[in-house]
Each structure stands twice: as structure tokens, then as C-alpha cells.
Design brief:
This protein has one domain. Helix content is about 85%, strand content about 5%. It contains one helix and two strands; from the N terminus they run ββα. It has a two-stranded antiparallel sheet.
Length: about 110
């Protein structure tokens, strides 16, 4: 370490004794070891939670797929029923029109015969 003096000169300070430096270093390593242990535990917890989340998401997606399939089947059934009803109504209207045409043709035939 360097310490300035009033006259601008610099005095070189001797480094701390080796046992003091070793103690300081050991304290830092102990503190870091504790933090590493805490971090390792937290990472383990995150891994477990990630696994749980993955399982929950898979379950949720399966349920969603099932609901989508059910909805699709209901829609298809509804469309088929709607088409069937529409076809029946079209046939009914065609019969009515056909009968009307036959009646008109009969009337025209009667008009010519007279």
C-alpha cells in the first residue's frame, strides 16, 4: 500500500502478515462456500419447480386438446344436422314448386282443350 505524505513523498507500507492474509482469505472462501450452498439449493428448487411446471403444462395442453376435439366434434355434428335440415327444407320447397308447375301445366292444358 502507498501512503502520501505532505511533502509529496510516498512511503511504501509493508503488506499484512501472511497469517492475517490467510485468515482473510479463509473468511472469504467460507462466505462464498455458504453462498454456493444456498445457490445450489435454490437451483435444485428451481429444477423441481420446472419439472412440476412442465408436468402441469403437459396436463393442461392435453386437457385443452381434448376440449378442442370435443368442440370440433360438436361443431361437425351441428353442421351435419344443419345441412340435413337445409336439404330437407330444400326438398320440401322443390316438391311444392313441382306441384305448382304440374298444376299450372294442367290449367294450361285445360285452357287449350277448350
Amino acid at each position: 500500500m502507498l501512503a502520501p505524505w505532505d511533502d509529496g513523498s510516498v512511503v511504501v507500507m509493508p503488506p499484512p502478515p501472511l497469517p492475517d492474509r490467510m485468515t482473510l482469505l479463509e473468511d472469504k472462501v467460507d462466505a462464498l462456500t455458504g453462498r454456493v450452498d444456498v445457490l445450489a439449493e435454490r437451483v435444485g428448487n428451481l429444477e423441481a419447480r420446472t419439472g412440476d411446471l412442465t408436468t402441469e403444462m403437459r396436463t393442461g395442453f392435453r386437457a385443452l386438446e381434448y376440449q378442442i376435439r370435443e368442440s370440433e366434434q360438436r361443431l361437425r355434428a351441428g353442421f351435419k344436422e344443419s345441412i340435413k335440415e337445409s336439404e330437407e327444407e330444400t326438398r320440401r320447397q322443390m316438391r311444392v314448386l313441382h306441384e305448382a308447375v304440374l298444376e299450372n301445366m294442367a290449367k294450361l292444358g285445360e285452357g287449350r282443350a277448350s
